Structures are given as structure tokens and as C-alpha cells.
From TrEMBL:
Domain PIN, residue spans: 7-113
InterPro entries recorded: PIN-like_dom_sf, PIN_dom, VapC50_C
Recorded superkingdom: Bacteria
Protein name per Swiss-Prot or TrEMBL: Uncharacterized protein
Transmembrane stretches, start-end: none
VapC50 C-terminal domain sequence ranges: 131-185
Coiled-coil regions listed: none
One matching Pfam family: PIN_3
Length: 190
């Protein structure tokens, strides 16, 4: 994966805070160009507030702004005209594919692989990847940058603070099984 490759994050991978933190921190390394839209932001924040009404909507709105500011050129615009021209198993996901097409992304990072069939994505030169595969590929190509990203996240986690192993366990619980094993091996071999 080259630094010029664009990657669209689906809302489902931005929904869980530990995974969102990792994916956004990785995006700040500029080893790829992370992309999302306001519609993607709307989806993950809306679903998070439904599941967690104790969270503050204004703080989530501020988080969205910070994400957009800290990952340069991440916000995709002018893609909406593509939405009605696309077909996917779940029509509600067409906006994600439209954003990927509009920004010439090569990867959509999502848990919902069945909603982004290879045969449809291949027409546009795009693949859907589970976040475990995506982060694992980054570890293989950029091990030090990924490890530094995890360390940066750990330095921010103060309430409560987490150890490296605690954080890896949290990421494993998010579905990042393979890349957690890779990170653990990498960390142990330093």
C-alpha cells in the first residue's frame, strides 16, 4: 500500500471508539489517505447515540470536526450524484461506494463484507477489507508506524490508563484478532 492510496472507512468501523482511535491515528501517519463523508459521520454518530444515549451529541460533533481537521483531505464531497447509479445488496450502503469511486479509493474498510460484493467493487477497482486484514496489511508494510500509532493512543488514554496488553485485548474484542497477534509479536521482538 502506497501513501497515495485512498481508503474509505465505512461507518461500522468508526462506531467503536477503540477501533476508530486506531484507524484515525493510522490515517495521521499518511501511509495512506483515509476518506469518509458527512453521511458516514452521520451514520456512525447516530447509531452510537442510539446505543449509548449517555454520550453527549455535542462532544461527538466536536470529534467529527477534530477527525476532519487532523486527517487532511479526509472529507469526501461531490459524490452524491453517483449514489442512484449504484447497486448493492443494501441500498443504504451505496453512499460508501459512491464516496470510494469519487475519490478513486482502492479499499473500503468495513465489517460488512457481504454488503460490498467483490464482483460489484471490482468494476470500480475497489476491494472491501475487514479492518483486521487492513491493519494487518499495514503492520506487514509499515510495522514501526503502526506500533508508534498504538503507542500514541496509549499515551492519550488516561482515564483509565491502559497497558499495551490491555489495549491489544480491547482491539481483539473489536475483531482485530490477527493484527493483535502481529502487534504482540512485533512489540515482544523490540
Amino acid at each position: 500500500m502506497a501513501a497515495n492510496i485512498a481508503v474509505v472507512y465505512d461507518a461500522c468501523v468508526l462506531y467503536p471508539a477503540p477501533l476508530r482511535d486506531l484507524l484515525v491515528q493510522l490515517a495521521t501517519t499518511r501511509i495512506f489517505r483515509a476518506k469518509w463523508t458527512e453521511l458516514i459521520h452521520d451514520e456512525w454518530t447516530r447509531n452510537l447515540l442510539i446505543k449509548r444515549p449517555d454520550l453527549n451529541a455535542n462532544r461527538l460533533a466536536r470529534l467529527r470536526v477534530l477527525m476532519n481537521e487532523n486527517v487532511p483531505d479526509s472529507l469526501v464531497t461531490d459524490f452524491e450524484q453517483l449514489i442512484p447509479t449504484l447497486e448493492l445488496p443494501d441500498p443504504e450502503d451505496r453512499h460508501v461506494l459512491a464516496a470510494a469511486i469519487a475519490t478513486n479509493a482502492k479499499i473500503i474498510v468495513t465489517f460488512n463484507l457481504k454488503d460490498f460484493p467483490d464482483v460489484i467493487l471490482a468494476r470500480h477497482g475497489i476491494v472491501a477489507q475487514h479492518p483486521d486484514v487492513f491493519v494487518g496489511n499495514l503492520i506487514e508494510r509499515y510495522p514501526q508506524q503502526v506500533l508508534q500509532s498504538v503507542d500514541t493512543i496509549l499515551s492519550r488514554l488516561k482515564n483509565p490508563p491502559q497497558t499495551f496488553d490491555n489495549h491489544l485485548e480491547t482491539l481483539a474484542n473489536q475483531g482485530l484478532i490477527s493484527c493483535v497477534a502481529m502487534l504482540r509479536d512485533l512489540h515482544n521482538n523490540i
